[in-house]
Amino acid sequence: MASEDSKSFGSSFSHYFRTYSTVKKIKVHNTSVAILHRILQFVVLAYIAVYIVWLKKGYQDVQMPSGSSVIKVKGVARVSTDNSSFNSNNIKQDLWDAAEYLIPPIENNAFFIATRKTVTYDQTLSTCPSALSNKLFCNSTHKPCKKGTRPLNANGFLTGNCVRSQENKTRHVCEINAWCPEERSSSIHDYHIDLMALYQQGGLIEIQQKWKCNFDSLEVEKECFPTFTFNLLQSGSDERSPGINYRFAEKYSVNGIKYRTLTKIYGLRFIIAIRGSGLGYMIIGEIICEFIFLKFHKYRNEYRRIKTKRYHLNQSKKCDDSTKVV
């Protein structure tokens, strides 16, 4: 049985390499079927010629852009500077130029423009009432001020004492050991305009730079120009994480006591995203056409003669020597 199977497999294998199969064509004279067949062929050719080649430019090669943008920001602005200590009437107007509101001066595909700052002067390491925005309220019967613990919404450690608030004398809050006076967080709940919240708390904005260039066009310099789209990724009115801000401190000492000035900067961070495509003539078509002209066209000899020029270096050297004047 095994020998018969091996013989059958050997004959099939030999038959596979010794025979050739082809398609037999039969011409059927039927006008309606022939017309339908030609119409379908015409539709397919028209689809390829009009839609794929002409409209979609299928003969072109597509290249995605890669690169970076360099942004320069210039100008001056008046900015409200808020002293975050618990004093009233502490808002003043400052004049900023690019050296002050552009922080840092150079970034890769991004830039940050400061719109507002809050300054807390003369902070020193001591004890003070926590800010009302920390919501560490207490009274004679309710004292959540566990000594040595650090609440998530405070910038120091609790001392265990319940003291009167500096912002509202009728309220009592937990005392903390931190850089005092504590920074006061301004609220924007009274603002109903998202743009104002964006200026007050900062935000994250994407600038989408989209290129669409056709390098086959005669007016490539006019067509190859980017369009810009602005998308707001994070606004100042977000409840969970409002705006963009950061802090920095300037430390100094007076009579051996260390102080610092805490500055909180709010602003708009812009991120540049580069997208698009560049279309150019695909070289495959040129290679195929050149091959047809050189090998199969009836005027291929004339085409070769015009396209190819023979040049002998020895003959050119003799000509150069004959032109020398003795």
From TrEMBL:
Name the major location: membrane
Sorted alphabetically, which keywords does the UniProt record give? Ion channel, Ion transport, Ligand-gated ion channel, Membrane, Transmembrane, Transmembrane helix, Transport
GO-annotated cellular components: endomembrane system; plasma membrane; postsynapse
Q: Name one GO molecular function term.
A: purinergic nucleotide receptor activity
List localization entries: Endomembrane system
The residue range of the signal peptide is none
- UniProt record, GO biological process: calcium ion transmembrane transport; response to ATP
Q: Does the keyword Chaperone apply?
A: no
Q: Where are the transmembrane segments?
A: 35-54, 278-296
Q: Pfam families annotated for this entry?
A: P2X_receptor (PF00864)
Q: Which domain of life is it from?
A: Eukaryota
Can you tell me which family this protein belongs to? Answer: Belongs to the P2X receptor family.
Query: What is the name listed in the Swiss-Prot or TrEMBL entry for this protein?
Result: Purinergic receptor
Q: Which organism is it from?
A: Adineta steineri
